Amino acid sequence: MPRRRAALILTCGLGLAACGTNPSSPYLFGLGDPIRGAGLSAPRNFGDTSRWAGQPASAAFAVEQLEFLTSSLATDPRYAPVVNPAVLQTLQRARTEMRAYLGIASDADPQLVITAMQRVGAALRGGSQAQAEAALSGAAFPAGPRSVLARLAEMPRLPQAAAAAGMVASEMDRLERRN
Predict the structure, then answer these.
(1) Is 0.85 surpassed by the pTM of this model?
(2) Average pLDDT taken over every residue of the chain
(3) How much is the pLDDT for 16?
(4) What is the C-alpha to C-alpha distance for residues 126 and 60, in angstroms, rounded to an integer?
(5) Do the beta carbons of residue 152 and residue 61 sit within 8 Å?
(6) Nearest to residue 149, comparing CAs of 107, 104, 93?
(7) Which of 22, 31, 55, 134 is the most exposed place for a label (fewest CB within 10 A)?
(8) Contact status, residue 107 vs residue 148, Cβ threshold 8 Å
(9) Cα-based distances in Å from 150 to 60, 61, 85, 133, 144
(10) DSSP 59-72
(11) DSSP label at residue 26
(12) What local confidence, expressed as pLDDT, does residue 178 receive?
């Protein structure tokens, strides 16, 4: 019985540790796939974006995850050939919806948006509004830094993001069962 309890505690600890990690970093301390980890976490992270209202750093993480998954599933050599095209289309619609709401250019480079959202989250967690605003300067953010930050702080439920979150998690499960 002590072994089972220790295994359960370890499993829970690893699961919790993976909850707030960078989506492009190694999943489960390098033991897992970051794309799979982001996909499985999608319902919690951007399935109901209104849960991040008043928490702009967490909202920035949700944006980062959506951008990461949309880009990675379309280009990663392991996933791109096998992912259901409907999942990719739904993720693309969700990214379009998210970008339109936040005031991010529709043609912005995904990596630029990911990096900016990482910086925004870190700056806000560190208490620096000025650094968060600086991370959102440039042509990719035509609504302006203050507007984007205000929208991150007032994040509503975005229906396309909710649909994409559920679909990508289901797709990760389907791909896992297939192997």
Answers:
(1) no
(2) 87
(3) 39
(4) 14
(5) no
(6) 104
(7) 31
(8) no
(9) 11, 15, 34, 11, 10
(10) HHHHHHHHHHHHHH
(11) P
(12) 82
